[in-house]
Amino acid sequence: MDSLQTDSLQTSFPIDQSADPAALEDARLGSAEMDECAACPDAGCKAMLVAAGLRPTRQRVLLSHLLFSKGDRHVTADMLFTEACDAGCPVSQATVYNTLNQFTQAGLLRRIGPDGSRSFFDTNTTPHPHYYLDGEDMLLDIPEQDLAVVNMPDVLPGHEVSRVDLIIHLRRRR
Fold first, then answer.
1. What is the CATH number of the domain that holds 103?
2. For residues 138 and 171, is the Cβ–Cβ distance under 8 A?
3. pTM, full prediction
4. Ordered DSSP codes for 64-90
5. Which terminal residue of the chain, N or C, has fewer Cβ atoms less than 10 Å from its own Cβ?
């Protein structure tokens, strides 16, 4: 993201002074600035956040622009924090972690934990399988036409399948 885009994304307008003090730190973007994020669902990051039931704070809008303006992708909190810093977006690591968790709870992201110690966040929330490249810390989508799940086990009595997560771990040949 170039300097001009970053500057316009960080532009804010006065916020409601009756809000709680913590909320005063989060300036909101005006609709003109949000039109620049045309790659986001609903033609803007702000609209996407509102549709998901989230308040479009300055940090959420900036992070959603970084996440969703590049198409489907897999990011970790550290990756997004680095991108935000590189783009000149003033956010803390805690804000990045909290925002990713809020986006996941709102259905905007899907959390994938391929190795139990680190989470990736997928901007494609539809059910789809993944490759995880061990040793390279990379998560890749598997084209769905390359996969067929047959002979699923019987579901436990009183339960139903809510989703199927498939992660195939790969490593380089030695």
1. 1.10.10.10
2. no
3. 0.71
4. HHHHHTT-S-EE-HHHHHHHHHHTT--
5. C
